[in-house]
Structure formats: structure tokens, C-alpha cells
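Recall from the previous lesson that a structure prediction takes nothing but the amino acid sequence as input. Here we apply that procedure to Exosome complex component RRP40 from Seriola lalandi dorsalis. The sequence below is the only information supplied.
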Amino acid sequence: MFSTLMVRVGEVLLPGDEFSCETDDTISLTDHVKPEKVVCGPGLRRSGDRLVVCKSGVLRHKQPNVFWIDSQQRRYVPAKGETVIGIVTTKSGDIFKVDFGGSEQASLSYLAFEGATKRNRPNVQVGDLVFAQFIIANKDMEPELVCIDSSGRANGMGVFGGGGLLFRVSLGLVRRLLSPHSEIRSDLDQLFPCELVVGMNGRLWVRSSSVQQTLIIANLLQSCDTMTAPQRRELFRRVKQGAL
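The prediction returns the following C-alpha cells.
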């Protein structure tokens, strides 16, 4: 199965495509070489001895044996440990309700902030933006967010958003922006210095030195959703020269 997947890396796959175990993947009693294990990422699902594609997109691979489907999906499904950008919608007693773009709202306790106590409550108002992390993300339970890490520190999370712009992009572009050596981030830093907050739920928040630059950055990032790398570099070059 591993060798078959490696051959198809970079190709467009559709839901229903299957990969089955080959005879080469079985363990031999005389050969000491172990079969390659395959780790399934988003868009791939195991069904017995088969690997089924459940989402349309491009097959990607990461060393040593991780495979996933890179798609232009915009619907976000919460996962434990992921950081998202949410909007506080209501205050209900000790709990805030946060809209993160999913099928239901998440809960956020007032004690889930750094330094928060029963007497020292955080200053959170309806309409505020919060950068938070899921600690509960189960289809049978209400999602729950916190603005602290495991050691009780904010670590960049909390209320933010003064003077910036919030907009949406695809989840595929979010993963490209969060990659360790993102070409889009490096090209953008050379073009305009800015503050950028990336949520795994497809929401981006950006703030630059002026409103005009902030709008240009937002338009550039939204255009990157459907552009190839050469097209993106040409667009950034034209913007840098002042042609656009």
C-alpha cells in the first residue's frame, strides 16, 4: 500500500478511490524487512485492509509515512488541541459562548484565562475576538475552549483584535500558512510588515501600519487560495512594484 500511495502523491483523488494491501506489504518469515506502516491524515479512512478516500483533493505525503488529502474545504470540524479564532456571542453566568464557525457554539469559562480568579475576572465583552484552544472536541459533547496552555500561561492566547481585519479563507490555505517554512508568509513579510493571527478554523486576522495596507494584505491572502506558486509570486512582484 505504501508504494502505491507514493506513486499517486500529487495527483487529484476523488471520494471512493481505494488502495488495498499488496503482497509486498505482508510480513515474510525469511526476510527481516518490516512492511511500511501508513498513517492516515484528513481525507483518508481505513476500512479493513483497504484505504478509502473520503474527500476530493490532492494526495500529499510527509516523511516518513504520513498521507493526507489537501482540499479546498471551508467547513471546519473541531479537533482537540487546535487553536481557533472565535467571536464571543453571549455571556451566560460564568460561561461565555463563542462562535468558531462550526455547527454549534463552544463554551469558554471565565477561569480559562491567565491569572483569572473569582475576584479577578477577565474583561471580555460580547463581540470580542478570542484566540483559544480546544480542550474538548467530541461529536457527543459540547466543544470547550480555553485561553491557557497546560502550564496555565496564555502563550499568545486570549482577547485580541483592536484595529485589525477579520476574514475567512480555506482550511488548505491555513495549513500552508502554518507550515514551518511557509513561502506565503516569507513573501508577505518582505512585502508588508504586519501582525497576522491564523486560526485552524479558517479565520485570519491581520493588522498593518495603515488601513490600506491591511486591506491589500487581506486581498492578497484571499487570492492565494486559488493561485499556483508562480502566479502568487508574480502577483506579489506586481504589488511590490506598485502596478496594482
